[in-house]
Amino acid sequence: MLFAAAVTKPLKAQEVVILPQRFEQNGVIKQIDHEGLLISIENWLSSQFNLPTINRHPRIEIVAPSTTASLVYKKLLSDPSVLAESETTGSQLNTVSLYDDVTEAIYLPRGWTGSTDVEVSILVHEMVHHFQNLLGFKYACAQEREKLAYMAQDRWLGQSGLSLASEFDLDPFTLLVATTCKY
Description:
The protein contains 8 helices and 6 strands; from the N terminus they run αβββαβααββαααα. The chain is an alpha+beta fold.
């Protein structure tokens, strides 16, 4: 019980950073158009995967890895079936980013700027979960929900000649295991 309280503590103000407005790349300060990026991803997902458009953006927060881990464990503890399945793949325990259905928030890792296709692909993955949530999609298990998210992320990366395998070391077999119900 003490463990559960420790990992589900509320987020402190210093643990959460709102999505950065600017970042430096090659000595040049660049401005990020968050709304434009989200709209662009939403339109791309709708057209690529024949999904209805959505008119509600998620809240996006930049958090420390320990905060992401805390949120993952909170999710695992609230749904024992996810915990049982994640133990077999370990995929949930190494989470880089996270979408929370209840708060409609995407938690991205500290240092994320959205300045590269790889970084944006992480947001694309989580935006799929936002679509799934708002559109009320149902899945047999938590892992099955990941199929479309990984497919979209890989397709996004493919536009730049990249892939999940090259950028995240996720080969097709690992993805099959990570996106298949274990029962």
